[in-house]
Amino acid sequence: xxxxxxxxxxxxxxxxxxxxxxxxxxxAGEHGRHTAxxxxxxxxxxxxxxLKQHWNTPDALYGTxxxxxxxxxxxxxxxxAARLVQIDDLPERSHATQGIVLLESGRPDEAEAVLRAxxxxxxxxxVLLTNLAKVAHYRGDATATADLLRRAVxxxxxxxxxxxxxxxxxxxxxxxxxxxxxxxDACALPGSWRARLMLxxxxxxxxxxxxxxxxxxxxxxAADVDGSALTTMSADLARHGHTGxxxxxxxxxxxxxxxxxxxxxxxxxxxxxxxxVADGETLLARLRPLATPPLARxxxxxxxxxxxxxxxxxxxxxxxxRA
Length: 323
What we know:
- This protein has 323 residues and is mostly helical.
- It has helices at 2-9, 15-18, 39-53, 58-70, 78-87, 91-104, 108-122, 126-139, 142-155, 160-187, 194-205, 209-220, 227-239, 243-250, 256-259, 261-273, 277-287, 293-322, and strands at residues 24-28, 34-38.
């Protein structure tokens, strides 16, 4: 788990150091076909026109910048990131984005200046503090990194990058005991649910289902329980062989309009695996009114699976009667 936690926080090396390892970009062509395009060609024919197209549209410009960052184009994005700061009504988002672009371009001092400017506008937020922690981590300042992440977690205990980074540092500093101590500290913060799910996962791995169930009960008791929390809970329970609890614990809490389709699909899979056909079909009926066409096709697949269970039931009963 430690490597996965740290990877979610660690800054990537400057894009100029990564480009050689990614000399082609996969681009979507006509009819949904994907083709590999040389990086320089993709930059000139796809990225630059797209940035120009979205120059005055903050949401689209932000999405384009973040997608290009993932492909290692940070140095090419500095002008666009500065433009985002000018036009975006969300100063936390725009300053964090420009800070990331500068840091991944190997400019930590400029990244820090932009992030601190964002704090002057938006106040201290978990996102801005976490990205300042990345600057400190880039410089090798472990003390500042840990302090900034700790402050970020206290502002928002459910901000995944801050929580994962802080826990990874505590585990590296003090081993498993330090990790668990930090995790329990995070669980105690007001509104904390992500840390509780991680502690429940720890209990499941140790074979302590009652302790895991206590954490899940605390998360589910919140009136505004997050849909991703239900999805994570369902996946962890199923992974450790407790699929029935997905239905009995998560099922009564799940509301399609509030918690989204993914949590519903997790519940449907649990109903299939435990052959709870009636529960599954009731859930299908609740999901139908909210489904877009792609989601409706997935619901149709679930319906066919439940139909197969229906068809198999009489055959099983006849076999049992003959025996």
